[in-house]
Fold this protein.
Amino acid sequence: MNRNSVNLLIGGEAGQGLVTIGQILAKSLVRSGYSIVVTQSYHSRIRGGHNTYTIHAGADRVIAPLETIDILVALNEETMTLHRHEISPDGIIIADEAFGISDDVSLRVPFKELAKQGFLNIAALGVVGSIIGLTEESIAGTMDKFFGKMDQKTAEENRLALSNAFRWTTGRSVSFSKLPPVSDPPKRLIMNGNEAIALGALSAGLKFYSFYPMTPSTSIGIALAGWAERMGSIVEQAEDEIAAINMALGASFAGAPSMVSTSGGGFALMVEGVSLAAMTETPVVIVVAQRPAPATGLPTRTEQADLNFVLYAGHGEFPRAILAPGTVEECFHLTYRAFELAERYQGPIFILTDQFLADSYRAVAPFDVENLSPVSPGSDPASSSSPYQRYALTDNGISPRLLPGISMQLVVADSDEHTEDGHLTEDLTVRQRMVEKRLKKGKGIRAEAIPPQMEGDKRPDLLMVSWGSTKGAVLKAASQMRHTGKNVSTLHFSQIWPLVSEQFMDYLQGAREVVSLEGNATGQLAGLIRRESGFLIEKQILRYDGLPITPEYILRELTK
Amino acid sequence: MVTIADYGTYETAWCPGCGNFSILKAVKEALTASQLEPHQALFVSGIGQAAKAPHYLNANVFNGLHGRSLPVATGAKLANPRLTVIVESGDGCNYGEGGNHFLAAIRRNIDLTLLVHNNQVYGLTKGQSSPTSEEGFVTKAQPGGVASTPFNPVAVAVAMHAGFVARAFTGLPDHLSDLIQQAIAHRGFSLIDVLQPCISFNKVNTFAWYKKRCYQLPSDYNPADWGAAIKAADQWGEQIPLGVIYRNDRPPFEEHFPVLNQGPLVGRDVDRMMLKEIMEGYA
């Protein structure tokens, strides 16, 4: 039987090198022209625990994580116990013969004969690579690039383990059909959501980034720190999240396009700074990579439960925008857009992502970084009135923003209610005008809101409503249902605030049944839609066990 | 030629007789003596009576949140190292709410001047204890007297080898102005802890109380001697030393960023070829 795609899961303990071989495999697949979606599930520890690295790969475009496993690479016995029931009828298990299993779907590998201790993961990589149809040369090339410079002896052991594994596997008759080769593969990058956010930020002109490490946001900082010197930007690990956002505001005030990133708990500490950004009208992009909460929650798992938190964070009333990427490409483009909005409307703009997307590697077409213009911070001092008034009242609420020290004009920003020239005031008439000025900017933000994406029949039997990282799973589930003759459409939000009901009311009203799908326990988007449009979505499919929503999960829940 | 008039005169919200007036005057004199033009200076402050000071002179100002002026100042200085950055706030702001930022700023040795109006009490909120209030100090919020020992900012800064550590008293305004000038000129983090009476809420540490105890360090005192500095920093009670207590030549934080050798970050183009190269590293 020919297959167009394969879902393979590598499972084991932290410290067994499963992420290493997962990465090399994913990169080799992309280089050979396949599309991938990676799901990483790990415990919050450096050694031990049960971790998995799942790659859904296909010759055609794949968009969603899958639960059904075609190849289970079990680096320990626990992996077999935990995942045996997820294997497809024609799936196989690759495991060490020492595990002593006599299951007929298993490929029992004498790993200790193929590789020395410390290189067993590379032997496993060779076996699975060979089975799915990758060449030894292609994996070896990826491996060399992945490890970079290393001592010759280690490099030789890696190559030997890979080569032995390929030879051993080729000598077996394995009843597993390979992926079809992709001829003339287009140029693809392999990148996860967080790396795309970092790249999108630089393309928009990011010059200052501060952070305090917190899973699953940290890899944004790691990427930006690695590029900072080459890109002429500054990355600073702050003493806490409070310092991180205040530093970013200081840098932005002084003219550097700035960003911070964190997860829910760290964002809780930043909240006062959100309000400060709004009051001082200082541009800042804030990335919140969600994980299950309250409090420390499940640090390394995924959830979509901070929508309301980010929507309402900050004391007082002020405008904001919340962008929620659904793919790695959207991570790039929406981050770029967030910088544009932050600069134009001079305040806090949010990117709401989550652990699943943050860690999910995908094959993406290269971004057009050469032709994207970075934002231009501040206004032209030559065209400003004198004496300069930082908070001059205007029709759209946007005041020309001069930067301190760049001209002779003095720039005064204040967290107190202030006059047009930035000095604190208790004049209550001024107060009223300033509230109105800040809120006017919200009208502009609203007018620019990205409409939700509608796919399928405009008057479907079932309309599935979703936001953020669940995009692929929902599209995939809908497409599978259409194959069985059902009239299903999807309505996906990649901007969740402002929510403009005129953009989607017809779709909601045109469907016979509407179901919302969210990675939280209370249906936060559905609640927001009700508040903004009055439309009640009665059926909700929710997931809050720390795992991403999959097409199988949706189909199971729909038939309940 | 910069004159003190360039820094303007404003009506204030302070109590008549407040030590803040002397500090404001000393700041303006120091800026004038340093020949800094108003647009070259950025004042960052937090919340409290002291934090209002930047509103009463001509300069760039970012008046942020309680306790958070140091991180704002750090970000602004990194974005534009040409700005002379002065952080001005009280003991509650810097040593209480912003304590972690105080430690981090000393560790970074970022080139800015931290001017702390230290009156050992919370003025704006009407008389609660501050981190520097003395043990036993009675307030409405601490009717049995403060049970904690006071924070000694000067000793902490010296212990951490801060770049420039000084103590001043509002009763000696010329001395204060001189210290501010030295702090502005110092490349690295500078702390000036300014002792000042709060005439409304601190009836213990009054002008007379400070005047009786404060003395200027002798001319043969060597602020480069860390051992001597630790001793001087620990001195409090009957005798309180004023002056530059400790200084060193640690390189300022900004020097660790080669990108800042070319000046401010603002207005720099994005190197798109480099960005493309970085992106293609993901192929």
Remarks:
- The radius of gyration of chain B is 20 Å.
- The mean pLDDT of chain B is 96.
- The CA atoms of residues 22 and 170 of chain B lie 6 Å apart.
- Chain B is about 30% helix and 15% strand.
